[in-house]
Write a structure and sequence with these properties.
The structure holds 2 protein chains of 2 kinds. By secondary structure, chain A is mainly α. The longest helix of chain A has 18 residues. The longest helix of chain B is centred in the last third of the chain and has 18 residues. Helices cover about 25% and strands about 25% of the residues of chain B. In chain B, the strands form 4 sheets. Chain B has a 20-stranded mixed β-sheet, with helices on both faces. In chain B, α9 packs across α10, α14 packs parallel to α17 and α18 crosses α21. The chains are: A mainly alpha, B alpha+beta.
């Protein structure tokens, strides 16, 4: 994992923790937001919009790229894709 | 087997009989258009003549149920109701009457507290029903669940006639808030199922019931058969798409199961009454499920009565049933009144079409009805017009398998303060769990504990006995939050959450028969497992009866019951499945019979849960070999008594390993504590009490003391260490006795934390501040008329374990023991214990507080103890680990010590320490200098130290203690004494080279503490004198001494035999 990936993951993990109440160290990369943590689509939208505030360079929330991220559920996939999207701008 | 519908009854908006309902439907009336549909002018139709109970003062929906039941029994021509039962789909949401009782138990009707099971039990009593009566909640699918269980009741021969259906009489304003949070309500109040522009549902109300009997009996008795139930399918979404979004896979499972049980093809259905409520998501998912299940249909006419009436919630499935029964009777398919375009999927472009005008319905007439509910509940029923030529056979008895209990878990308390939720593996955001009914949290945790001891197939049923939490409205009425708030309070979600957590697809419901609720749950579970309908079942019951509203209702009804909180769960499988899965068979359920073996009478301490709790305990006793056979009998006050017999498993049906081998592996637990009961007073109220008008928190009985200059109060922040009062068992303003429970949350930001991130020992004692609240609540100030203040006089401190750490919640249980008057002295005697997660940490025994006038405080003579009374040491002190030649330490040296620079304190040759125990955070240091230190000093030459604190008026411990009446808490003086003792141990070198250790007060010893003088902002100095009576080195050095503290020379404070240790962390 590159340091950028690590930063993206750390930001994402902090936001998931604050929105769900799980302890930060319990949130692992391989977890599935829906299956393992019970995060539904509404809360996923909340999480991703918070990520957009904290991670500069992400496309708008209603862009096709972010819509695609919304469909993902495994944390490492989301974090990886967000890292790419933020880096490409 | 075939079950005949022989009677119908309803009370609905615009229809007080099935005939009126059918006319309304055929006319295409829409009573919901633009307004909330309500039952009106009902009392004109209602006839109380001949009822066995006066129902004039109970909630109106009870009379609706009685009216509908009578209508159905009349049509069914049932005269003798001795073998008639009632299973009622009923939302365990509060009725208006229960909310009113909760707001004012002294004026409300106590029977309304028990409205959950009472909705079945009270009509049963009024009508003289002798069969089994209970309520079932599966959200909006409940009515069809009740029909299924009623069919089972008939199939087993337990009853001759069963009434089944549903009722919604929930408080309308509550329902508005309830659905508003999930954004399911139609803003325009238009109920438009299947409509392209449908924007939400319109809640409606009422009752719909059918009377059922075995088809063979109906034929024999010549009863008119209105329809024949061929099969009912029940399923849960399991993990699905979450608790609020319907999942087509779950719906399809219920539908397919119904056709499989009926033994007919779905394509033969010629009228489908859908659940369709007019929400965009719900209608779309349902039409997708229909497209899948009815793919073979050539023409499928569908409808939804919600277009006429709105959504009657728990009654919905039964209203749909009444509609298709009317259609069968008339041979007509009635219209669903929706104007404008319907969804493509049901527009007739494919084979599925909404019926939009009356059309004739040629035989053979086979109908189906769907009902779906939040929490993943799905139900589907198939019924036919009766064909008198079809030969039906009485199925006789069903070959039922033997049922084993393979796992048990319980949690209980009197009261239970917290529920510890294991966060690992929890599939719900912890923030959402904090929004849940505490009984739901307790049930989920206990069910997980049971489930961890076995393996469960997807086809597992979850059935729980419980009642409506009277505090539900306050959990819903919060300023923020969305769907999680609604889901948090839904009673059937208590079961739904378990099915979702464990991904279980069997029926998932809650049932209530008040005290017998757990028995009903167990019985339904046993039946489903024995019949092979499910692969396993989780049967549970939960009740948090230690609730003031519940207790007020018991008292008002003259029931003298010591309440308890409990959850009990058992997991059932057939003996064969248990053997196949390698389960340990803990016990076997005996077939229905008279009570045999050892008999346990359950009582009702934990109302709905007590019976099942006793069953769970009985399983343990069988397992320990105490008995071979135990029968648990529950005798509810308003229902017939019931019993279940559990038998010790024989050796041949399970390997009898010790229970411990089946315990889940111990991993590091991450527990989140959720309070089991709402706070009696929350933090904001406690802060208000410290500085504001007491009557605004305690109520008008305390208005007389609002203006008093001096009152007994807890401190204001920051010295207010209590976060909430969780229970108060005491009559206000009576000067009687009682108890209070309070909690203190220790967070990473708690200002009082020590250097080792723990609560300083004596602040653990200080946080028992609610003792002052208890005295105040009992009315001491009303007696003292405002000229006295509260001061602690002493008590015995005993530690049982380490002090609380970050993340802990400390729970205090404080008992008032006596109010005493000696001359001019006014005393309050109490004791308390503080625990963390159920483990006791510190007790304060024989505590005494006094109420003093200003003159009394100023005239204190101090305490009588002097050093000549010091007990001689039992052994000579061990020789120190290091020696300092210094015999006095100035403020720079003491500060250096507190900051960990020991060489700057004890002399340049002092060894550099490695991470030893820390005395305190420097800012909380409670002495500034050590004018005397003599390891050979004191009356017995065993050691002496004097430390001094110069008192500054702005010192932290005056801040809030008390508002307008600053004085240094005796517990803080005691903490200063411990710090001085820590300094003494350090000066003897015992902190050198002890990494990973900390100071801890010795456990298991009582330290008598006496306070007879005060330290106020006008005090100049506080002196601590340590008279050492023991000093031991070794692995865990320990110092024992008497401490005498003097306030400007007045002997004010003494602790005897205080012991401080250095222990490994």
């Amino acid at each position: 994992m590159t340091s950028t990936d690590r930063t993206t993951f750390a930001i994402l993990r902090d936001i998931i923790a604050s929105k769900t109440g799980y302890l930060t160290d319990m949130i692992e990369e391989g977890m599935d937001l829906e299956v393992d943590l019970g995060v539904d689509s509404i809360r996923k939208v909340e999480i991703l919009s918070e990520v957009r505030k904290r991670l500069p360079g992400l496309p708008p929330g209603d862009s096709p790229e972010m819509t695609e991220v919304l469909k993902m559920s495994v944390i490492s996939e989301i974090s990886g894709r967000l890292g790419e999207l933020a880096g490409s701008r | 087997m075939d079950i005949a519908v022989v009677g119908r009854g309803c009370v609905l908006p615009g229809a007080h009989s099935p005939a009126e309902l059918w006319e309304l439907i055929c006319r295409g009336d829409t009573v919901s258009r633009g307004r909330r549909p309500t039952v009106t002018a009902f009392e004109e139709s209602y006839d109380p003549e001949g009822l066995r109970v006066d129902l004039s003062d109970v909630a109106p929906h009870i009379r609706w149920i009685v009216h509908a039941a009578r209508t159905a029994l009349l049509e069914a021509r049932v005269d003798d109701t001795g073998r008639t039962g009632l299973i009622l789909g009923h939302l365990s949401l509060p009725s208006s009457a229960l909310l009113a009782f909760g707001r004012s138990p002294s004026t409300g009707n106590a029977r309304d507290r028990f409205h959950t099971g009472t909705a079945a039990l009270l009509p049963a009593e009024a009508l003289g029903l002798g069969g089994r009566c209970f309520t079932v909640d599966a959200a909006c699918a409940a009515a069809l669940y009740s029909v299924k269980f009623a069919c089972d009741e008939l199939a087993t021969g337990a009853a001759e006639v069963m009434l089944a259906g549903g009722c919604n009489g929930s408080d309308p304003a509550f329902l508005g808030q309830f659905f508003g949070r999930v954004e399911a309500l139609s803003p325009q109040q238009l109920s438009r199922p299947f409509h392209r522009e449908a924007d939400g549902l319109v809640p409606s109300e009422g009752v719909a019931l059918v009377a059922l009997t075995r088809l063979t009996d109906a034929r024999m008795k010549g009863q008119r058969v209105l329809g024949v139930i061929r099969g009912v399918g029940l399923s849960n979404d399991g993990r699905g798409k979450g608790l609020v979004s319907p999942d087509p896979r779950g719906q399809v499972r219920a539908m397919r199961q119904a056709y499989s049980r009926a033994g007919v093809e779905s394509a033969t259905v010629s009228l489908l009454e859908c659940h369709a409520t007019g929400t965009a998501v719900g209608d779309a998912v349902e039409t997708a499920s229909i497209a899948e299940v009815f793919a073979e249909s050539s023409d499928l006419p569908i409808g939804s009565v919600k277009a006429n009436l709105g959504h009657t919630l728990n009654a919905a499935g039964a209203v749909g049933l009444l509609k298709v029964l009317g259609a069968i009777e008339a041979g007509i398919r009635p219209p669903t009144p929706v104007s404008g375009d319907v969804l493509d999927a049901v527009s007739g472009q494919s084979t599925v079409r909404v019926v939009r005008a009356l059309e004739s319905w040629p035989a053979p007439r086979r109908a189906a009805v769907s009902a779906f509910g939040f929490g993943g509940c799905n139900a589907h029923i198939v019924l036919d017009e009766d064909d008198p030529d079809r030969i039906v056979q009485d199925p006789g008895s069903i070959a039922a398998a033997r049922v084993a209990i393979v796992a048990v878990a319980t949690n209980s308390g009197r009261p239970l303060i917290d529920v510890g939720v294991e966060l690992r593996g929890l599939r719900f955001p912890p923030n959402d769990m904090r929004r849940c009914l505490p009984q739901g949290v307790l049930a989920l945790q206990t069910a997980r504990e049971a489930a961890a001891r076995t393996v469960l197939p997807h086809e597992t049923m979850v059935v729980l006995g419980l009642g409506c939490d009277p505090r539900m409205a306050s959990l819903l009425d919060v300023p923020d939050g969305g769907p999680e708030v609604t889901l948090g309070v839904m009673p059937n979600m208590v079961a739904g959450r378990i099915s979702s957590q464990l991904d279980l697809w069997g029926p998932s419901i809650v049932v209530s028969q008040e005290e017998a609720s757990g028995h009903i749950a167990l019985d339904l579970a046993v039946r489903a497992v024995a019949n092979g309908e499910v692969g396993a079942a989780i049967a549970g019951a939960v009740d948090l009866s230690c609730d003031p509203i519940h207790e007020a209702a018991l008292a008002a009804l003259g029931r003298d019951i010591q309440t308890a909180d409990a959850a009990a769960f058992v997991i059932l499988k057939t003996v064969d499945s248990a053997r196949r899965d390698g389960d340990r068979v803990l016990a076997v359920i005996a077939g229905a019979a008279e009570p045999t073996g050892h008999i346990v009478r359950a009582g009702s301490a934990s109302h709905a849960a007590q019976g099942l709790l006793e069953v769970a305990e009985a399983v343990g006793r069988l397992d320990r070999g105490e008995y071979e056979r135990i029968t648990v009998v529950t005798e509810p006050i308003t229902a017939p008594s019931c019993s279940v017999t559990v038998v010790r498993a024989e050796m041949d049906i399970g390997v009898r390993q010790p229970l411990s081998e089946f315990e889940p592996p111990i991993t590091e637990k991450r527990i989140m504590n959720i309070p089991a009961h709402p706070a009696v007073f929350d933090r904001a109220q406690l802060e208000h009490l410290a500085t504001g008008r007491i009557s605004e928190v305690f109520g008008p009985a305390f208005a007389a003391q609002d203006g008093f200059a001096r009152q007994t109060k807890m401190p204001a922040p920051p010295m207010l260490l209590v976060d909430r009062v969780t229970r108060l068992d005491a009559e206000p303003a009576t000067m009687g006795l009682g108890a209070v429970w309070s909690q203190t949350d220790v967070g990473p930001d708690s200002w009082y934390l020590d250097a080792d991130q723990r609560v300083p020992a004596c602040l653990m004692v200080e946080a028992g501040q609610a003792s002052a609240l208890l005295a105040s609540w009992l009315g001491v100030d009303l007696r003292h008329q405002g000229d006295r203040v509260y001061r602690l006089l002493g008590g015995e401190i005993e530690f049982h374990g380490p002090t609380a750490a970050v993340g802990d919640t400390i729970t205090y249980e404080i008992h008032a023991d006596k109010h005493a008057v000696f001359g001019d002295m006014r005393l309050f005697l109490f004791h308390f214990r503080a625990s963390v997660a159920g483990e006791p940490r510190v007790s304060f025994w024989s505590a005494q507080a006094g109420f003093f006038t200003e003159e009394q405080l100023a005239g204190s003579q101090g305490l009588r103890w002097d050093p000549s009374q010091l007990r001689p040491p039992t052994a000579a002190p061990d020789s120190p680990q290091a020696k300092t030649e210094l015999r006095a330490f100035g403020s720079d040296q003491v500060r250096a010590f507190a900051e960990g620079r020991e060489a700057d304190c004890f002399g340049p040759s002092w060894p550099v320490r490695q991470d030893g125990p820390r005395i305190t955070r420097p800012e909380h240091l409670l002495f500034g200098s050590v004018p005397e230190f003599d390891p050979e000093g004191g009356p017995h030459g065993s050691g002496y130290l004097r430390a001094r604190l110069d008192i500054a008026p702005e010192s932290w411990f005056f801040d809030g203690h008390f508002a307008g009446d600053p004085c240094m808490p005796a517990t803080v003086i005691c903490q200063g004494s411990l710090q001085a003792m820590a300094f003494y141990l350090a000066a003897l070198g015992y902190t050198i080279d002890r990494p990973g250790t900390r100071f801890e007060v010795a456990t298991g010893h009582r330290f008598p503490m006496v306070c007879r003088g005060q330290v106020t902002p006008s005090t100049r100095a506080l002196d601590y004198e340590l008279f050492i009576t023991g000093c031991r080195g070794g692995a865990e050095p320990e110092l024992e001494c008497d401490v005498l503290c003097s306030s400007d020379g007045l002997r004010s404070f003494h602790v005897q035999g205080l012991r401080l240790r250095i222990v490994r962390d």
